[in-house]
């Protein structure tokens, strides 16, 4: 009886990892394009000690306003996208129910 040996390759490019790799690459590239186009660099004024052994950044107040505005815009876009998807699914379900029932009566 012949025996066969099979070697498995441990590679990140297996089909089950491709979606995760594509997602990470898309996020990094999008962030890079955003920074490149807008030239957004938070103005850091100086390093300040916040506690014994800890050093933090002292950031201008306008930077916090800009960051919170960006967070609100991203959350608003996400919520709008989710509501649009839900609405389109409801419309599709409603249309399917009408077609299956033979039209409106």
Could you characterize what this model shows?
The longest helix has 40 residues. 61% of the residues lie in helices and 13% in strands. It has a two-stranded antiparallel ribbon. It is flat. The mean pLDDT is 76. A hairpin with a 2-residue loop joins strand 1 and strand 2. It is α+β, with helices and mostly antiparallel strands and 105 residues long. It has a domain of 70 residues. Keywords: Membrane, Transmembrane, Transmembrane helix.
Structural descriptors:
transmembrane, 105 residues, two-stranded antiparallel sheet, 2 helices, membrane, alpha+beta, flat, transmembrane helix
| Main β sheet profile | 2 strands, antiparallel
Structural class: alpha+beta
Mean pLDDT: 76
Based on DSSP secondary structure assignment, what is the total number of beta strands?
2
Q: For the largest sheet, list the strands in their spatial order.
A: 1-2
User: Taking Cα atoms only, what radius of gyration do you get, to the nearest Å?
Assistant: 26 Å
- Assign a percent range to the helix content: 55-70%
How far apart lie the N and C ends? Answer: 71 Å
Helix and strand string, N-terminal first?
HEEH
Q: How much of the residues is beta strand, in percent?
A: 5-15%
């Amino acid at each position: 009886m012949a025996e066969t040996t099979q070697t498995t390759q441990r590679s990140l490019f297996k089909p089950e990892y491709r979606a995760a790799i594509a997602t990470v690459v898309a996020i990094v590239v999008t962030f890079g394009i955003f920074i490149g186009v807008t030239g957004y660099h938070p103005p850091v004024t100086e390093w300040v000690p916040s506690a014994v052994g800890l050093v933090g950044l002292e950031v201008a107040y306008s930077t916090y306003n800009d960051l919170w505005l960006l967070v609100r815009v991203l959350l608003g876009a996400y919520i709008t996208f989710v509501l649009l998807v839900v609405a389109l699914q409801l419309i599709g379900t409603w249309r399917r129910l009408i077609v299956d029932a033979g039209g409106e009566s």
